UniProtKB/TrEMBL annotation:
Keywords: DNA-binding. This is Rrf2 family transcriptional regulator. It holds the Pfam family Rrf2. It comes from the Bacteria.
Amino acid sequence: MRISARADYAVRAALQLAASRDDGPLKAEAIADAQDIPHKFLESILNDMRRGGLVLSQRGGNGGYRLAKPAESISIADVIRTVDGPLVSVRGVRPPELSYTGPAESLLPLWIALRSNVREILEGVSLADVASAQLPADVSALTNAPSAWVNP
């Protein structure tokens, strides 16, 4: 699985909004500066997130962006899907729409299992979890194996 720059920036922007939700709306420039995200790229991402119902925008001198819902109710998967589409695809196609024959026939259940695990992790972690550095125990446990930190 590959996390695009767009998805990474969107999650980071959403986390910045989650961390400062009591401070009122944040300007895009402030989010971009805090997270080292190119401002123009961030504007496009915030617009997608607004259209997707994850953030609200407010105009005026005290305007900016804020989360549309509590951070506890927005999963990391919600953010990624909003800006990048499905979490797992093969050649741009969702796994259930694929078919294989012969020795490749077992690929489909493999891709479905992969998608299931990705969903379980990303849907099970909220913006609030990450912003408070309180990842769910099952997610934290996956990072305990030394091999999890090594690039093969």
